[in-house]
Every structure is written in structure tokens, then in C-alpha cells.
Write a structure and sequence with these properties.
By secondary structure, the protein is mostly beta strands. The chain is built from 1 helix and 7 strands; from the N terminus they run βαββββββ. Strand 3 and strand 4 form a beta hairpin. It is globular, with a radius of gyration of 14 Å. The N and C termini lie close together (about 10 Å).
Length: about 110
């Protein structure tokens, strides 16, 4: 099993940071053209992401997100090479902006 956490301080209000995070298939720089939000409401989102492994092998995956407005988004990959991978995005207002922590967990399927 792999678990890893990364954090970043973004100098913007928590609500603004969360609004951008809800659009992530469009701004992650290693995602390819065709990445999109399939559906989204206040509590859920469904995405399709296109990327290239090792900069040349095209791949695609789908994921579902469960949202707790301005606080957390839990993404689970539902199709693709890393099916079952989860990424929990936590948003915390701190002095100077918003701290975003992303904890990724993956277990190789049996």
C-alpha cells in the first residue's frame, strides 16, 4: 500500500481555492486535451482525465468525487490503471491564505 501527503499554502481565501479545485481536470498541467468534468453538483463530481504515462503512452481514467463544500473533496479512481486510488483534498484557512493538503492512498488490487 502507498500513502503520501503533500501540502501547499495558497494565498487566497478558502472559498476561492475550493472553487478552483472543483475544476481540476482543466488546470493540472500533465492532463491532456479531452480531460473533462462529466457531471457535478454541490456534493458529487464525476470526471474523465486523459494523460500520458512516461510522456508518450496515452492513458485515460475516470473518477468520482464526494464534496464537503469548502472543506474536503475525496476523489476515487473508478476506471483506469490505478482503479481504487483515493486522493483526499483538505482545505484549511490559515494565516496568509488556505492550506491545501492532498493525501493519496493506493493498494494494488488482488
Amino acid at each position: 500500500m502507498y500513502t503520501g501527503t503533500q501540502s501547499i499554502l495558497i494565498q487566497a481565501p478558502q472559498n476561492d481555492v475550493y472553487k478552483v479545485a472543483e475544476t481540476y481536470p482543466y488546470f493540472v498541467r500533465f492532463f491532456s486535451e479531452g480531460s473533462r468534468i462529466i457531471s457535478q453538483d454541490m456534493h458529487h463530481m464525476s470526471v474523465e482525465v486523459h494523460t500520458k504515462l512516461a510522456s508518450f503512452l496515452p492513458t485515460r481514467w475516470k473518477g468520482e468525487g464526494v464534496k464537503l463544500r469548502n472543506q474536503k473533496i475525496k476523489f476515487t479512481q473508478t476506471e483506469g490503471l490505478f482503479k481504487g486510488l483515493t486522493a483526499v483534498w483538505d482545505f484549511h484557512e490559515v494565516s496568509g491564505g488556505t492550506r491545501v493538503s492532498i493525501t493519496t492512498t493506493f493498494s494494488k488490487p488482488n
